Amino acid sequence: MSAVIDFSELQLLSNRAFARWVPRVATNEWLREVSGESRFVWDLDAMQDGFLDPLYEIFDKHPERWRPILAAGLMQAADIDAASQDAVLAALELQFLTSIMLTRFRNGRTAAEAQSAGEIPFAVIATVSYTARQYAPTLVIRHAASLSPDAKTWLAYRFGRVTVQGAAGAAYNLFRWETKKTLMDESSYLAYLRYFVSSASFVLSADCAIAAAAPISTFAAQLQEASACAGIAYHLAAECETWRGDDGASLEPGHFLMGPNHAPDRRDAGPFDGSENIGRWLALAKAERDKAEQCTQGLPRSLQAVFLDFLESAVDAKLTTEREAASAK
Amino acid sequence: MRSEFSTDFVRDMDPVLGEHYTQWLPYCRESIAATIDELAHPDAFPRTLGIDNGHVDRDLLHSACVAPFRSYLRRSGKMLRPYLVCLCLEAYGRDPRTRPREVALAEIIHSSSLILDDVADDSTYRRGDLTAHQQVGMLVAGAVGSEWLNLGFEVVWRDRESLGSRITSRLIEELAWEHFVTGLGTTVDCIWPWQEKTNCLPGEYLQQVVHRSTSYTYRLPLKIGGLTADVPESEVAKLSAFGEQVGLGFQIVDDLLNVKPADEHWGKEVAEDIVQGKLTLQVILALERAEGARRARLLEILRSGTHVQSELQEAVGVLEETGALEECRRLATELRDGALKIADDLGMDEIYRRRLKALACYVLRRTR
Predict the structure, then answer these.
(1) Which of A1, A137, A280, B247 has the most other CB atoms within 10 Å of its CB?
(2) Are B150 and B69 in contact (CB under 8 A)?
């Protein structure tokens, strides 16, 4: 049981916030609230099949809600009622879900090729990802009633900026492989995660707390840096799961510095292959985790306690799981 | 079928619009070039992305993230959207030359949306040249479209001091909302062919058009112009309504031209919408009206993905026989008339109202 953050409660709060703004069932009332009066008539079935169902498929597969939990925990540490920030928390989770949505598709294919039989078409998934991603800043600037006008503007801008970074990173990484067919070195990969991979970051969680609680803004740079390092640590640890797969299985695009159309078998993956590399990856993750902890020095006690509790429950727990799994193998 | 894009469309415009447009076109190009350079020059781009210069291959970053976008700007687009921002600013007493970023913003968003449209439709050509995803792959092109679309927030943010808090906030709000609702409309657009729906309502098509395409065609540029000029919200709402009405008409005419181009300068595959099995208004109406073998044949062609022109023309024949094309022309005319009424009520000098009305008329009779 956590000493500072009630993770179960904040997970429930995050789920409720998401359901408030992204209902499982499409209704005219929801569409009216978020997109305005219908001028003609909405095809609700299309909204259900083409937006909400694919979104909930991925929402249910990833139940952790780390990002809204961290934001809500930091808000509570600053005496802000996190429940009043439901639109912000929903936006955070939307941003995360969309960042992992397109990973199953590989580049250099036509739309028709980019799907298996029976799967939702690439165009639909791409549209869900696009729409959900754009919904996030809309939620912030239109529906985050508890934020000040300037805070809403800044936070919506930050959501847009993360989308730019994530999109530019995807283009850069895919294009780099297509043209150079070389792997990134370790430091380039860490920089890539830091600047380009929004799913490997908790910075937006810090931003949401900063927007909601003016006093936190004094410590914005520290919190953002700690969140960036914690996100990279978590991401690196999570990548070890891929390493632990069967020897003959293909690596997924975006994992382990591989190219999108040429993801090789693990045994052919070059210098990063092998269990010793899992150890290396976990060491890198630990180093980032320690940097995150270091960044919390000087934060007010309540903020520091929340962040360290999060670090322990999210990042350390993941690192422990992966260490144990690597040892067992 | 590939064809070269031409810029002689100005001849289709009333001179009151065409001359003003021609006058502002060089400035539009200048503003766009300057804004893109400011954001995306190889020396500046990492900073735009918030990246420490030492950590990325700048040339590669530029080739991946900037070059495909620039290639769309080089294709002699009409630049109508930045022009509309200029028109609004001038109409409300502001000098467009003081707002180059907001002028450029409209074209940045438009070109980004074209890249994404081409990905969604898996189109081969745009303005007579290969689409971005044909050049750099589906995911790279999709990412580049999304990147540039969202760089719009950065453009506005850079002007926040001169715009002031309220206008900055309103511009960011409208960018976010327009991008989102465009996604909702696009959802309907791409779900219909996937589910092979055949019983869609004309109203459902028009609703998705209101969201999917009226934003980037005219509604958003007019809002950018009105908001940047700091006009009252009631005036912004009128500009938005005008843009939506014209945008609806634009899409219906676009659908008509897609199956029956007016000349050889169309620049896309003829009847590409039928190749993609799209349920446009004319197809929905034809499916409502056609019976038996003709209806079945139309559905068969729509679902076949054929590129064979004789088969595509057979489908176009069904659209004509059922009166669907004529009905669409009638509706486009109604929408234009609605736009003219809205324009009458705008709080700007008569000459600017005339220009906007000329735009509504041009959209209806355009040939490309």
Answers:
(1) A137
(2) no
Q: How far apart are the first and last CA of chain A?
A: 29
pLDDT at B278: 87
SS3 B217: helix
Of A40, A156, A176, the CB nearest to B176: A156
Residues of B in contact with A207 (CB under 8 A): none
User: Which residue among A126, A149, A167 sits closest to B165, beta carbon to beta carbon?
Assistant: A149
pLDDT digit string (tens) for B84-109? 999 999 999 999 999 999 999 999 99
- Chain A contact present for B144, CB below 8 A: yes
pLDDT in tens, B107-155: 999 999 999 988 877 788 887 789 998 888 888 899 999 999 999 999 9
Put simply, the answer to whether A157 touches B211 (Cβ < 8 Å) is no
Question: What six digits make up the tokens of B253?
Answer: 């005419």
- A133 → chain B, closest CA residue: B180
* Partner residue facing B183 (CB), from A36, A131, A179: A131
Could A46 and B119 be called an inter-chain contact, meaning their C-beta atoms sit closer than 8 Å? Answer: no
State which of A182-196, A249-263, B204-218 shows the largest mean pLDDT. Answer: B204-218
CB contact under 8 A, B157 and A157: yes
Least confidently predicted of A248-257, A277-286, A313-322: A248-257
Using CA atoms, how far apart are residues B3 and A232, in angstroms rounded to an integer? 48
| Interface-testing mutation among B51, B150, B163, B175, with chain A (most A C-beta atoms within 10 A) | B150
- Minimum CA–CA partner of B137 in chain A: A108
The predicted model gives A187-208 an average pLDDT of: 89
pLDDT at B109: 95
Q: Do A34 and B139 touch (CB under 8 A)?
A: no
ipTM above 0.85, yes or no: yes
Please judge whether A168 and B65 are an interchain contact, meaning their C-beta atoms are less than 8 angstroms apart: yes
Q: Name the residue type at position A21.
A: W
Per-residue pLDDT of B334-347, as tens digits, reads: 999 999 999 999 99
- The mean pLDDT value of chain A amounts to 85
- Asked whether the beta carbons of A127 and B186 are under 8 A apart, the reply is yes
pLDDT at residue number A266: 43
**8 A C-beta contact, residue B331 and residue B285:** no
Contacts of A294 (CB under 8 A, 6+ apart): none
pTM: 0.92
**Tokens standing for residue B361:** 């008329």
How far CA A136 is from CA of A159, A168, B163, B242, B291, in Å, comes to 7, 18, 24, 27, 45
Nearest-Cα residue of chain B relative to residue A54: B187
What percentage of chain A's residues is helix, strand, coil (to nearest 5)?
A: 75, 0, 25
**Degrees to nearest 5, angle at CA A231 with B59 and A20:** 110
CA dihedral B178, A54, A197, B153 (to 10 degrees): 0
Q: Which residue has the higher pLDDT, B248 or B43?
A: B248
DSSP assignment of B307-328, as one string? Answer: --HHHHHHHHHHHHHTTHHHHH
Cα separation of A100 and A275, whole Å?
A: 26
Best interface-test mutation with B: which of A35, A105, A182 has the largest number of B CBs within 10 A? A35
- The verdict on a CB contact (< 8 Å) between A51 and B150 is no
Among B168, B68, B23, B22, residue whose Cα is nearest residue A172: B68
Q: What is the mean pLDDT of residues B216-239?
A: 96
B161 touches A: beta carbon within 8 Å = no
Which residue from A127, A149, A163 is facing B183, i.e. has the nearest CB? A127
| Strand B125-126 to B129-130 pairing | antiparallel
Q: Which phi and psi angles does A120 have, rounded to 5°?
A: -65, 135
